[in-house]
Amino acid sequence: MNGFDNDTYLEKINKAAAYIKETAGGSFSPEICVVSGSGLASLSSFCEITKEIPASSIPGFPVSTAPGHEGMLFAAKAGNKDILIVNGRVHYYEGYDMRDVTMYVRVASVLGVRSLIITNAAGGISESFKPVQFMAISDHISFMAESALRGPNLDDFGTRFPDQSAIYEPAYIDILMDVAKENNINLLSGIYAYTKGPQYETPAEIRMLKALGADAVGMSTVPEVIVASHCGIKVAAISVITNLAAGLSDGKLSGEEVITNANKAADDAALLIGKLIERI
Ligand code: HPA
Asked: Are 239 and 122 within 8 A, CB to CB?
């Protein structure tokens, strides 16, 4: 059906998972997957990397072309927990279809991952959000985008119509809030609007998203979170507010500013993630 071939996709997922497991050492069994967003590639300081696996070496694995996203996976240890780190996820705007964009989540699921911790860079819409600070995503708006679950259901992973009432694990948000407070990190929770990009939004689009209740906007994360919810994986998602969204400041938006500001947040992001992992 229209390019959706579940058997081929499943085979690709299983092959990639088997390759990662073998390359990382057969005993590698991650329960947690951490994904670093734009400009946050250096946030692996919360763990000890045991194996570097270039995305390009993994059979069938999509490779990022976006600036600030080096295509690298890491097998890592934090305390006694095995962690899979994905640096350089791919985006819909690069031309990948939603199944490629979200493939790493299914691969992680096959490897045994039960918790996904995602970071991204986002533009602030709510007056409460100023660059550079953090937002724990509590919910999202993405009805304008194609669903990553479109096509025949992958029954091996989950149900046709997955519930979306609480896909950002409330207990993880509570932990992040506690950690932020204990460490003087500026973190609020809020609603993330997904836009497909690659162009930034127009001021009119931002006014619309604001009227709909969005607190921040970005071009990633949501497809993967939807797939994680389909797989029964719990999610924590942290946005770094790198800029005011279009029309909310006098300046123009630029990818360079996003990466520069995300870099500034990398140490605090690593701290938040490290402490979350300890308490999961
Ligand atoms: N819009 C969309 N994506 C983004 C932004 C933004 O303002 N900032 C960082 N990623």
From this structure: yes
Nearest CA to ligand 1 atom 7: 123
Atom 9 (ligand 1): residue with closest C-alpha?
122
pLDDT at 62 over 90: yes
The verdict on pTM exceeding 0.85 is yes
- Return the CATH architecture of domain 6-279: 3-Layer(aba) Sandwich (3.40)
Q: Please report the atom of ligand 1 found closest to the CA of residue 246.
A: 7
Ranges of each domain in the chain:
6-279
Residues 6+ apart with CB under 8 A from 143: none
What pLDDT is stored for residue 88 in this prediction? Answer: 85
**243 Cβ closer than 6 Å to some ligand 1 atom:** yes
What's the pLDDT at 144?
86
Q: With residue 87 as reference, give the H or E element that holds it.
A: strand 81-87
Q: Is the dihedral of CA 252, 253, 259, 262 positive or negative?
A: positive
Q: In what helix (H) or strand (E) does residue 272 lie, and over which residues does it extend? A: helix 255-279
